[in-house]
From TrEMBL:
<dbReference type="InterPro" id="IPR017853">
    <property type="entry name" value="GH"/>
</dbReference>
<dbReference type="InterPro" id="IPR026891">
    <property type="entry name" value="Fn3-like"/>
</dbReference>
<dbReference type="InterPro" id="IPR036962">
    <property type="entry name" value="Glyco_hydro_3_N_sf"/>
</dbReference>
<dbReference type="InterPro" id="IPR036881">
    <property type="entry name" value="Glyco_hydro_3_C_sf"/>
</dbReference>
<keyword id="KW-0326">Glycosidase</keyword>
<comment type="similarity">
    <text>Belongs to the glycosyl hydrolase 3 family.</text>
</comment>
<dbReference type="InterPro" id="IPR013783">
    <property type="entry name" value="Ig-like_fold"/>
</dbReference>
<keyword id="KW-0732">Signal</keyword>
<dbReference type="InterPro" id="IPR051915">
    <property type="entry name" value="Cellulose_Degrad_GH3"/>
</dbReference>
<dbReference type="GO" id="GO:0009251">
    <property type="term" value="P:glucan catabolic process"/>
</dbReference>
<dbReference type="Pfam" id="PF00933">
    <property type="entry name" value="Glyco_hydro_3"/>
</dbReference>
<dbReference type="InterPro" id="IPR002772">
    <property type="entry name" value="Glyco_hydro_3_C"/>
</dbReference>
<dbReference type="InterPro" id="IPR001764">
    <property type="entry name" value="Glyco_hydro_3_N"/>
</dbReference>
<dbReference type="Pfam" id="PF14310">
    <property type="entry name" value="Fn3-like"/>
</dbReference>
<dbReference type="Pfam" id="PF01915">
    <property type="entry name" value="Glyco_hydro_3_C"/>
</dbReference>
<keyword id="KW-0378">Hydrolase</keyword>
<feature type="domain" description="Fibronectin type III-like">
    <location>
        <begin position="658"/>
        <end position="727"/>
    </location>
</feature>
Length: 740
């Protein structure tokens, strides 16, 4: 079960590989120590995600040969100017690598990554990354700091919008596809960019969901929950990894030898580039694990971290550290070799300007094809949380009231991390419905930040009361999730609850459309609002994609990649939890317990243990049944494959898409095992009345975990295969035994 890491060099055809290796070694032998250290120094050109650090002027630094890469370059003109300085005017003439956070689209903005993961469709993730790479590479970007692969179970953390949710397996499959999409087959092609798996590792476990907060993880949780998506990226050949800001075992990830040198480089075999996060080397001082920048630089280079994003620690300290005999020069050489290999793989030595073609840029951005791809992904990312009485899709021909500032807010549709996204490119829900629904009336009802004035409320109630149905857009502003956007309360901000309740009171059927970057705690809405469609921040094609679902042009096929809590007090709440010694699965939670057998259980007095909407949940406009689930054997050995056949039938009267979900449960292990774990899934499109059989092959690798012997192994014994519509909606359970 070793991770099959594919290095950048392994991905090159033999001849190019030899050329790159030779070029890199020649350069290394020619560079002075100062120049080598300069390569490891990354500076910021424009937009900053933290205090600007260090005092080096970017232009001067590039000219002096003291900079190896630059992030956040504004445009092609600036990119070309920097590259000219590096190649034509610096002493060594080594081209720069230019980096940007291209997270969910470059100019054509796609749904936020959490939304995209709700498609449960790796092809969609690959497609959006492919389009993003095509546009970014045409805009002078060589290197994207994506994908974020942080597994997180905390809806308070703003960065859950950036990754693929709470589950290691779904995250791994989606992240693997994103790397494929960004990097393609040839990094030197003019439509691919270097990807970066981040944030290594465990950042998603920030305590209390507070950004940049402490992380305290067991090794087992690290390996079983947080590591799998990174392993998937390494297998897909990701060329760089970014250190997390967080601690592991009380040592910051950037200087953590156990994490970087031993686990990532040693055990997982990753020998390409590791870049710090923004000033994360400098933050060793704040963490109190280094007394000064010199000590921080020493610790980070020794841990195996190569490139210093903006802290200046390497630039100011590494030369002295080597000259004083504290740091071995071979460590510097190794890090520089990795960066130069990246430059070679990107084809920058042959043509440092190959990404700077204005004409290509004008042809490649926001094309019709790209918009169409954005619409496809946005269609598949929506999750129908509830649909009482089949309110959706909306009937033809009725009067529809559309309410909510977000329905008309182009900028919010882009979400956080929007690269070159432009609100002017967005088609809003209001614009689309105005075109496609004849009897549409729009009324604002609330501002995009959720504030509702008396006048707005009155006008909205009046309009909704006289309509046949209402669509109410509620949620967060885009800046309420993303980096540095933790929220302690994850209900709808402002007065949106009061607005929705007043509109439901009118008696007109109300469908709420949610725009948000995280799971929300909306139990009151789940109780009172007949239909709720989760649209996340859907990108430039927000309006058309949502209208396609609201009007029944397509079936809502998204499923939740992260549980929605009943209330913040349940967090972290996630499906693949461990059992406790006092499970409360069947407890009656309506009455305060008096029977000691009911009272002394792992439960709350005031809310259920279960989330409001579980991982994997999502309704369709039709219904599905699993008519047959079977295993091809009752036993398997570690070398055998077990086949799970699932026959799924569309039992409704419309075409639709079911996401067949296969979970495993290992009832007894040497360490406590989760109640279930996702191991396979597949999207199945079925016409009304049609059925299909899907087969999934399981091997011992699927049964393996980090055992009490501190190794990955599958332990013999009984296992359950659970096939379901969602983690809380298991339709069939079959058992088999792993025998020696
Ligand atoms: C800090 C963020 O944590 C990281 O994800 C991002 O890539 C860098 N800033 C650069 O913008």
């Amino acid at each position: 079960m070793e991770t099959q890491t594919r290095s950048l060099l392994d991905q090159l055809p033999p001849e190019r590989r030899a050329e790159v290796e030779e070029r890199v070694e020649t350069l290394l032998s020619e560079l002075t120590l100062e120049q080598k250290v300069g390569q490891l120094n990354q500076l910021n050109a424009d937009f900053a995600t933290g205090t600007a650090v260090g005092d080096m002027d970017v232009e001067q630094g590039v000219l002096d040969g003291d900079v190896g890469s630059v992030l956040n370059v504004a445009d092609l003109e600036e990119a070309r100017a920097f590259q000219e300085l590096a190649v034509e005017e610096s002493d060594h003439g080594i081209p720069l690598v230019l980096a940007l956070d291209v997270i969910h689209g470059h100019r054509t903005i796609f749904p936020i990554p959490l939304g995209e993961a709700a498609s449960w469709n790796p092809e969609m993730a690959e497609l959006s990354a492919r389009v993003a790479a095509t546009e970014a590479a045409a805009s002078g970007v060589h290197w994207t700091f994506a994908p974020s692969v942080d597994v997180s179970r905390d809806a308070r953390w703003g960065r859950v919008m950036e990754a693929a949710g709470e589950d290691p397996y779904l995250s791994a499959e989606i992240s693997r596809a994103r790397v494929r999409g960004f990097q393609g087959e040839d990094l030197a092609a003019d439509d691919t960019v270097l990807a970066c798996a981040k944030h290594y590792v465990g950042y998603g476990a920030s305590e209390a969901g507070r950004e940049y907060n402490t992380v305290d993880l067991s090794e087992t949780a690290l390996r079983e929950v947080h590591l799998p998506p990174f392993e998937a990226c390494l297998e897909a050949g990701v060329g760089s990894v970014m250190n997390a800001f967080s601690l592991y075992d009380r040592v910051p990830a950037s200087s953590n030898e156990e994490l970087v040198r031993e686990l990532l480089r040693g055990e997982l075999g990753f020998d390409d580039l590791v870049v710090s996060d923004w000033n994360s080397f400098g933050e060793l001082l704040e963490h109190g694990v280094a007394g000064d920048l010199r000590d921080a630089a020493r610790a980070c280079i020794e841990a195996g971290s190569d490139v210093d994003m903006v802290s200046g620690a390497y630039a100011t300290e590494l030369v002295d550290l080597v000259e004083d005999g504290v740091v071995d020069e071979s460590l510097v050489d190794r890090a520089v070799r990795r960066l130069l290999t990246v430059k070679g793989a990107l084809g920058l030595f042959e043509d440092p300007y190959r990404y700077f073609d204005e004409e290509r840029r004008s042809r490649r951005l926001l094309t019709d094809d790209h918009r169409e791809a954005a619409r496809d992904v946005a269609r598949e990312s929506q999750v129908l949380l509830k649909n009482e009485g089949g309110l959706l899709p909306l009937d033809d021909g009725g009067d529809v009231a559309l309410v909510g500032g977000l329905a008309d807010s182009a900028t919010d549709m882009l979400g956080a991390w929007r690269a070159e996204g432009d609100p002017d490119d967005v088609t809003t829900l209001r614009a689309t419905l105005a075109d496609r629904v004849e009897g549409l009336t729009y009324v604002e009802g609330c501002d995009r930040d959720g504030a509702v004035s008396d006048e707005q409320l009155e006008a909205a109630v009046e309009t909704v009361a006289s309509a046949d149905a209402a669509v109410v857009a509620v949620g967060e502003r885009y800046s309420q999730s993303g980096e540095a956007a933790s929220r302690a309360h994850v209900d709808l901000p402002g007065d949106q609850r009061a607005l929705l309740e007043a509109l439901v009171e009118t008696g007109t059927p109300v469908a709420a459309v949610l725009f948000n970057g995280r799971p929300l705690a909306i139990d009151w809405a789940a109780e009172r609002v007949p239909a709720i469609l989760e649209a996340w921040f859907p990108g430039v094609e927000a309006g058309p994609a949502i209208a396609d679902v609201l009007l029944g042009e397509c079936d809502p096929s998204g499923r939740l990649p992260m549980s929605f809590p009943v209330t913040e007090g349940q967090i972290p709440v996630y499906y693949n939890r461990l059992r406790t010694g006092r499970p409360a699965e069947d407890a009656d939670l309506t009455e305060p317990p008096s029977d000691p057998g009911e009272k002394y259980l792992s439960r709350y007095l005031d809310v259920p243990n279960e989330p409001l909407y579980a991982f994997g949940h999502g309704e369709s406009y039709t219904t599905f049944a699993y008519t047959d689930v079977s295993l091809d054997a009752a036993t398997m050995t570690a070398d055998e494959t077990l086949s799970v056949d699932v026959t799924v039938e569309n039992t409704g009267d419309r075409a639709g898409t079911e996401v067949v979900q296969v979970y495993l449960r290992d009832p007894v292990g040497s360490r406590a095992r989760p109640v279930r774990e996702l191991v396979r899934f597949e999207n199945v499109d079925l016409d009304a009345g049609a059925s299909a059989t899907v087969s999934f092959d399981l091997t011992a690798a699927d049964l393996a975990f980090w055992t009490a012997d501190d190794e990955y192994a599958a332990e013999p014994g009984e296992f359950e295969v659970q096939v379901g519509h969602a983690a809380d909606d298991i339709a069939a359970v079959e058992t088999f035994e792993l025998v020696e």
